[in-house]
From TrEMBL:
Pfam families: ABC_tran. Belongs to the ABC transporter superfamily. Keywords: ATP-binding, Nucleotide-binding, Transport. GO terms for molecular function: ATP binding; ATP hydrolysis activity. The gene is ecsA. SUPFAM superfamilies: P-loop containing nucleoside triphosphate hydrolases. This is ABC-type transporter ATP-binding protein EcsA. CDD domains: ABC_DR_subfamily_A (cd03230). Transmembrane segments: none annotated. SMART domains: AAA. Residues 2-230 form the ABC transporter domain.
């Protein structure tokens, strides 16, 4: 579902992503972790087609991003850490907009189900500008789920969510993966996402330091605390480089 082959992104004199390669299959959930500036958001934005790769090949749902960007966008949803909602549109109008753009047949019942799932059903007439940070995040996720994309990219999606909201989001990710979607979730809250992920991608200074199934990483560490050491202490992260795929 996702193939990243030798992705490189350069901004001026800054090498943001350096020859990154990995692949994910249908139903897999990948946690993307690393320090600020590791290249996580750049990688997601490149996969979403929002920025052009300097070099490399990107495939999403069997489509080459360079050759068929429109088809990729039909198959992919990207939710950034600060969702760009339309402030003057209500919650319900956002459903109308996304349902129309993606030509989702009979989208309204599906939209109502999602609003109930994320506890936004009573906010349908409320403008996006009046929503709290967490509610805006939920609405962005609802819009992403509405057209049932086969690839979902979530960049720091837990920001602003309360504990019940986090639980709902993580369970929704499991459900969509079980239905065949491929998900990448970027987060600094490792304890929150580790149990939902099937794979982990650790980045440092734009480079891949580890990529593989979570079972492989659990076999190399003893506890959740040692995971955090591995992700954020340079000497531990580098110890996983030999296990990169």
């Amino acid at each position: 579902m996702i193939v990243v082959d030798q992705l490189q992104k350069i901004y001026g004199d800054t090498l943001a992503v350096d020859r990154l390669s990995f692949s994910l299959q249908s139903g897999q959930i990948c946690g993307l972790v690393g320090k600020n500036g590791a290249g996580k958001t750049t990688t997601m934005r490149a996969l979403a087609g929002l920025i052009d790769a300097t070099e490399g090949r990107l495939q999403v749902a069997g489509c080459d991003l360079h050759q068929d960007p429109l088809q990729v966008r039909r198959q992919l949803a990207y939710v950034p850490d600060d969702p760009p909602l339309f402030n003057d549109l209500s919650v319900g109008q956002h459903l109308d907009l996304i349902g129309g753009i993606y030509q989702v047949p009979d989208y309204w019942p599906r939209g109502q189900e999602l609003l109930r799932e994320f506890e936004l059903e009573d906010k349908q007439a409320v403008a996006a500008r009046a929503l709290s940070r967490g509610m805006r995040q939920k609405l962005a996720v609802v819009c992403a789920y509405l057209y049932e994309p086969s690839v979902i990219l979530l960049d720091e999606p837990l920001t602003g969510l309360d504990p019940p909201g986090i639980r709902t989001l993580l369970e929704s990710i499991r459900q969509r993966a079980a239905a065949g979607a491929t998900v990448i979730i970027s987060s600094h809250l490792l304890a929150m996402i580790e149990n939902v992920c099937t794979h982990l991608l650790v980045m440092q200074h734009g480079r891949k330091q580890f990529f593989g199934p979570t079972d492989q990483l659990r076999g190399e560490t003893d506890s959740a605390a040692s995971w955090e050491q591995a992700f954020f202490a340079d000497q531990h992260v580098e110890s996983f480089a030999g296990g990169s795929v």
